[in-house]
Amino acid sequence: MNFRTLIIIFSVALGLGQDIDWSDSPSSITAMDIYCDTENISIYVDGQLAGVSPLSGPIQVAPGWHLVSYFPPRVKLKDSFTTNTRFVRDIVKLARQNVLVEQGETVKVVISYRTVEAEAKNYQKNLTSENW
């Protein structure tokens, strides 16, 4: 094959090549940047330990809904109606946050351990007064 034939083949291939539409390509990473008001608190994302506060940077996740919590997934509560079980179940619910992350977005998530602690004390006080 001579040089002239090679140039003709290359020119035809270049002319028939497809243009790539980069507008449909995924954008930057999809992540959650989680901030906590208290240090040394374990933070779980979808039941997996993401780290201990303060986290060093964003947590990369798939697009969609995610559960951010202070409690590990093994915290299972029975549906009995004792005051203590009800109290613990409601506190666990307070410490969980559902977060929607869109494709290519980095969502800032702020979780307040101190607020949950204060609400737990107030909730316990209300439960105790209800029993009277």
Keywords:
single chain, 132 residues, four-stranded antiparallel beta sheet, three-stranded mixed beta sheet, 7 strands, 34% helix, 27% strand
Structural class of the secondary structure composition? alpha+beta
Radius of gyration: 26 Å
Please outline the major beta sheet. Answer: 4 strands, antiparallel
Percent of residues in helices: 25-40%
Mean pLDDT: 77
Describe this structure in words.
- By secondary structure, the chain is an alpha+beta fold.
- Helix content is 34%, strand content 27%.
- It contains three helices and seven strands, in the order H-E-E-E-E-E-H-E-E-H.
- The chain has helices at 3-16, 83-94, 113-131, and strands at residues 31-36, 42-45, 48-52, 59-60, 64-69, 96-101, 106-111.
- The strands form two sheets. It has a four-stranded antiparallel beta sheet.
- Helix 2 (83-94) packs antiparallel against helix 3 (113-131).
- It is rod-shaped, with a radius of gyration of 26 Å.
- The N and C termini lie far apart (99 Å).
